[in-house]
Amino acid sequence: MHVIFWILSQDHYNLVQYKNHIASALHTNHFKGLSQWMYMTSTDGHTDEEIRKIYNFKNIAVVGMSRDPAKAAHFVPKYMIEMGYNVIPVNPSAAEILGRRTYSRVSDIKSEVDIVDVFRPSEDVYPVVEDSMKKPGIRVIWLQEGIHNSNGEKIAQESNIDFVFNRCIMAEHMRLFNDD
Q: In terms of domain of life, where is this protein from (predicted)?
């Protein structure tokens, strides 16, 4: 079986075919960065049914929620509010977003939290997961599109917390629940 990738180089596209040697090719300078790109083109192993069940949880802490309406970290949680979810903003630089009190960390939230939805770069995920572990009742850590952290995934799974990555919580909701 051949795997074919289009790779953008400095001045042109190269068609590269691999057969059984993908891993060793990724370690060369020519393919630097491709490993992360390949990984992020896939998502976690959740089935549609498993993702649907996650939406039964209604309390979502959104880490990195933004005041800027043009950013996904604003309009995605706004959509979830419109769909009936209780969204709790986590942003240490804002007092309030969308009329809701913000918190500096997930562990500071006094009310129930089921899902921690993360809008932070991959390298910032581990401390978010670590902090979330201090909050009893967390069922799911959800990392938005393009975000993954294997160390964060490991400690979440060790604590029996479901870990979703490289998926938009709004896009998945629309795909699974909108009949349009």
A: Archaea
